[in-house]
Design brief:
This is LemA protein. The termini are far apart. It is elongated and about 85 Å long. The protein has 6 helices and no strands. By secondary structure, the chain is mainly alpha-helical. Helices cover 77% and strands 0% of the residues. It has a single domain, classed as de novo design (two linked rop proteins).
Length: 192
Amino acid sequence: MKTGIIVVIVLVLLGFFGCSKYNGLVAKDETVQKAWGNVETQYQRRADLIDNLVNTVKGSAKFEQETLTKVIEARSKASSVQINANDLTPEKVQQFQAAQGELTGALSRLLVTVEKYPELRTTEQFQTLMAQIEGTENRISVARNDFNGAVNEFNSSVRTFPNNIIAGLGGFKAKGYFQADKGAEKAPKVQF
């Protein structure tokens, strides 16, 4: 009789322990999904600002149509790559990152082209817009860092014992990180 009671108590305690670990993993998974939503929000903000930048530049200066076309195409491509927050595999995060990298490159070329038009840089509307884009790029960086922090905490929980047992039973898998673009370790050349 006493052995039966002890077994039941042990099973109940293990059940509570398992539920606690599972609920902890769910909470961390939700944190990752929220962080991913914040990353997407900042990229959307940038995509929205690009139209304003392009229209400002178009209205204030005539310059290489090719550069403008590349910015518009890169924005369209970056906006079309969508990832479900429940499926943040390393491959899908890299695909999203590659599309956003093309947009970043196109924006850089646009800004270099704008350097050729000093009268555009001095307009109040352009200066305000550039400040907004700079702020957005900073927000993207912060959102990426927050996302990687949430992924790190989640992945650590999923991979450590005994959480890995509960994670396996609950279907939790490691998430992908944002990584620096290839060549990002080299400082860009600025030429005037």
